[in-house]
Design goal:
single chain, alpha+beta, 6-stranded mixed beta sheet, binds guanosine-5'-triphosphate, initiation factor
Length: 885
């Protein structure tokens, strides 16, 4: 039985400890407790305010001094104005000035930072960029072509673009006059080959970074000068800290106990009031204030990729996207805010603002540099052979004979064990790798991606049928790939097979037999009987010997994807053929635009292996995301993080290339842009009497689209309005336009039921007019400022209750209590706020007219100074018209 004391020991132990703790604390009088609670409360509020403040200041590039003053000054509940004749200096004004100056240091540090340049750059990558910069140019075809190297492991020479194509690192200013005369620059959107290559020529990436003022990764400009969360306010009342170190918790409590706590509490109250009262118009003003704070000039130069969205370009140039869109429209380029424009167009646009565009190639950042082979590193390697030829000429049977296994019959049984390539070991120990994919498809896929994987092509030609269409195609493909051809004249076991006939036919394709003085090897074979197969293999080895195929097996592995598939059990699996290096399980890699880490590796016999050498076909697993394509370059990287980085940049580049030519708003891309932009949309289905007028109407209507409102023609066809049209309109929320056509009775009935609007017209201008009005109805009104009066600050008073009071003389117009105010200093708008109090003498007034003195306290801005102009203005909403856009 458990005794009471035991129970206490078990259950009551923590309680006793707690009690002890409480007892250790000195006794506090009830009123003292209340005070402590208040102080704690104030402290909590204060921490919130401070963090909020630092966030605000971080987001603003400049005038932190204003904010500082504002925070120090409590919100004036009832502004009091002293007579202008009784100047009074306030002790706190000096404090505020001191704070302001400390913040000036901070704002300059913000100002020097470039938000565009904060791209992460590892030092290792930078080294690579520097190496890359020596390229004179690059092919402009798809991304995969760019990463492919030659089969012998050497990087193909980069094409040299004509000298003077573009100076290193920068673009020459665009001579508009010349272009207008049809001279220099190609038309918009036509990006001539070599342009981008020229852009990079000789321009070291790191140099570009430096020129662009890009801060190195991780070195945030904020870190240097930004005060810690305590800020100067803490310093004033709290104990001094060495080196501006973050205050300890005790310090915070101490400072909270000071008289400043009340001010913080008031400040907190004001802020919560502000945040609550954020109406739509307030948002507008916030944006405006932000814009004012960002009244930066257009930079003299910017760095962009090969294409850029209008929004990004506007941001880089410190301009409004709408302004750029308008300019582009003037140039005949219809583009939305998130639409891509190429670097040429961006250059022309930027040139309008005397801004030079430097094209930073994303491609450069996706290149995995490899170390060049030294002659002593190179060792002979296995030849890689592709069997090609016309349908039914015996390709599979030949491969089958080579492997001494009947693949045809296995395939008939549904067994597909092959991995796209396999290696044959001959009795003498020599090896040959055969690509086991249907020749043409493999070749086409490889060629499309710029891969030249095959060393030798074996062209199988039926000795009975002779040269057929696919034989010709195979010859062309092999010749384009500069792969030597060995002709295997098959089915020589058949009576009507003729070697001579085939030789004659092929001579027309510059495939002349050695016996005729040419250099092409012809081998008579019978895949059925196995006759001539040995000779064929010998011929392959002979050809390979002549080609002196060598590679470096000791470097990081490189090669190509031969085929890829999704294995139900193992996920993404790809057959890879290495051109150089040794591949090991656990290696990080990039294949095309995807990356991964080798999880498992299998040879062509399906056996699990740990490493693979050049020309040895292997199937790998371990892809982290997508499935690569046949012909994609495969490269091992130093680690997985780098592989991921490269893959992500390649994906971005791939996306950009895909989007590069999308400039005009089209039905194909509108869904994407709408989801991105949250645009308003007017959807139409057009039906007309003849196709010609339907097309004309469609084009005219699509031109009415603005960056805010998309006009989408879902379908445009000739014919009556039928039920299907109504159904489509109902599901997609569209309006039907009937031009010279009417709905069938059934369609009309359905439209009535579904509340689908059918508008009928006979004149094209009526349609345009109606739709224009509809679009204008959807346009949000334009908010326009109207200045109502101006006052000059002749004296500044500080009040402990209401903060700074501006003693003003109204110079023109009228200042009303409801006016919004621009604070203008040296012709620069430094503040945008409302009036908290307006007084004549000691009386609150609604307005003060020209020629009268008044006292103004501002809401949301307290850093008023002698000589500042207070510009009173009102916002008026103006209905937008399409014509005025
Ligand atoms: N008599 C004879 N028949 C052959 C020979 N080689 C292949 N054949 C037959 O020709 C037909 C087609 O052979 P495949 O090896 O499937 O031809 P293929 O070129 O691979 O055909 P596709 O895969 O459709 O392009 C089969 O019926 C084979 O048995 C040969 O040397 N002699």
């Amino acid at each position: 039985m458990t005794s009471e004391s035991d129970k206490d020991k078990k259950e009551g132990a923590p309680l006793i400890k707690k009690d002890k703790k409480i007892k250790e604390q000195p006794a506090v009088a009830p009123e003292k407790k209340e005070e402590q609670a208040q102080v704690k409360d104030v402290k909590k509020k204060r921490v919130v305010v401070v963090s909020k403040k630092s966030r605000e200041e971080e987001s603003k590039p400049k005038p932190s001094s204003h904010q500082k003053s504002e925070q120090n000054a409590p919100t004036p509940a009832s502004p009091h104005v002293q007579s202008l004749d009784t100047p009074r200096t306030h002790k706190r004004a000096g404090n505020l000035a001191g704070n302001a100056s400390s913040n000036t240091t901070r704002s300059s540090s913000y100002g020097s930072s470039s938000s565009y340049g904060s791209r992460p750059t590892s030092s290792a990558t930078t080294q690579r960029y520097e190496q890359t910069s020596s390229y004179a140019g690059r092919p402009t075809s798809s991304y995969a072509n760019r990463y492919n190297s030659s089969p012998n492991g050497e990087r193909p020479p980069r094409p040299n673009y004509p000298q003077g194509d573009r100076p290193a690192g920068s673009r020459p200013p665009y001579d508009r006059d010349r272009a207008n005369q049809g001279g220099g620059r190609p038309p918009y959107g036509s990006s001539p080959n070599g342009r981008t290559g020229g852009a990079q020529s000789g321009r070291p990436y790191s140099g570009g970074s430096a020129g662009g003022g890009r801060p190195p990764y991780g070195s945030s400009p904020y870190n240097n000068n930004r005060p810690n969360s305590g800020g100067s306010t803490y310093n004033r009342s709290g104990p001094a800290r060495a080196g501006g170190a973050k205050p300890a918790a005790t310090e915070t409590i101490d400072t909270s106990r000071s008289a400043g706590a009340a001010r913080w509490a008031a400040s907190k109250g004001k802020k919560s009031y502000q945040s609550k009262s954020q109406s739509d118009s307030e948002k507008f003003f916030q944006q405006k204030r932000k814009a004012l704070n960002n009244t930066k000039v257009v930079p003299s130069s910017i760095d962009i990729m090969e294409s850029i969205t209008v929004a990004d370009l506007a941001r880089k140039m410190n301009l409004k996207a709408s302004e750029l869109i308008a300019k582009l429209m003037g140039m005949g380029v219809m583009v939305t805010i998130n639409g891509q424009i190429d670097s040429d167009t961006a250059t022309i646009l930027a040139d309008e603002y005397n801004c030079t565009v430097n094209v930073v190639s994303l491609y450069d950042e996706t290149v995995i540099e490899t170390v060049a082979d030294r002659p002593e590193d190179l060792l002979p390697r296995t030849p890689i052979v592709t069997i090609m030829g016309h349908v039914d000429h015996g390709k599979t049977k030949t491969l089958d004979a080579i492997r001494s296994a009947d693949v045809v019959s296995k395939e008939a049984g549904g067994i597909t064990q092959h991995i796209g390539a396999y290696q044959v070991t001959l009795p003498n120990g020599q090896q040959i790798t055969f690509l086991d994919t249907p020749g043409h498809e493999a070749f086409s896929a490889m060629r499309e991606r710029g891969a030249s994987v095959t060393d030798i092509v074996v062209l199988v030609v039926s000795g009975t049928e002779g040269v057929m269409p696919q034989t010709r195609e195979a010859i062309r493909q092999a010749q384009e790939a500069k792969a030597p051809i060995i002709v295997a004249v098959n089915k020589m076991d058949l009576q009507d097979a003729s070697m001579e006939k085939i030789q004659q036919q092929l001579a027309e394709f510059e495939l002349t037999p050695e016996s005729w003085g040419g250099s092409t090897i012809f081998v008579p074979i019978s895949a059925l009987t196995g006759m001539g197969i040995d000779l064929l293999l010998e011929s392959i080895l002979l050809q390979a010997e002549v080609m002196e195929l060598k590679t470096n097996p000791h470097c990081a592995a490189e090669g190509h994807v031969i085929e890829a598939r999704i294995d139900p059990g193992r996920g993404i699996a790809a057959t890879v053929l290495l051109s150089r290096g040794t591949l090991n399980v656990g290696d990080a890699f990039v294949a095309g635009i995807y990356h991964g880490k080798i999880r498992a590796m299998y040879n062509d016999k399906g056996q699990r292996i740990k490493s693979a050498t050049p020309a040895q076909p292997v199937e790998i697993t371990g892809f982290s995301e997508g499935t690569p394509k046949a012909g994609d370059p495969f490269q091992v990287t130093k680690d997985e993080a780098f592989a991921r980085q490269i893959a992500s940049k390649r994906q971005e580049l791939h996306k950009m290339e895909g989007a590069k030519n999308i400039k005009k708003v089209s039905l194909a891309n509108f869904m994407e842009s709408i989801s991105e932009l949250d645009q308003k949309e007017l959807r139409l289905i057009i039906k007309g009497d003849v196709q010609g007028s339907v097309e004309a109407l469609k084009q005219s209507l699509e031109k009415l689209s603005t960056q805010e409102i998309r006009l989408t023609v879902l379908s445009a066809a000739a014919g009556a309005i039928v039920e299907q049209d109504v159904k489509s309109a109902a599901t997609s929320d569209a309006i039907i336009i009937g031009f010279h056509v009417r709905p069938t009775p059934k369609a009309q009935l359905l439209a009535d039921q579904e509340k689908v609007e059918i508008r009928k017209y006979n004149l094209i201008y009526e349609v345009i007019e109606d739709i224009t009005l509809a679009i204008e109805g959807l346009l949000s009104p334009e908010l326009r400022e109207q200045v109502t009066g101006q006052a000059e600050i002749r004296k500044v008073f500080s009040s402990s209750k209401v903060g700074n009071i501006a003693g003003c003389m109204v110079l023109s117009g009228v200042i009303t209590r409801k006016s919004r105010i621009h604070v203008i200093r040296d012709s620069v708008v430094v503040g945008d706020c409302t009036i908290a109090g307006l007084k004549r003498e000691k009386d609150d007034v609604k307005e003060v007219k020209e020629g009268f003195e008044c006292g103004v306290t501002l809401q949301g801005y307290s850093d008023v100074r002698l000589g500042d102009i207070l510009e009173a203005y009102e916002i008026t909403e103006i209905k937008r018209r399409l014509a005025s856009k």
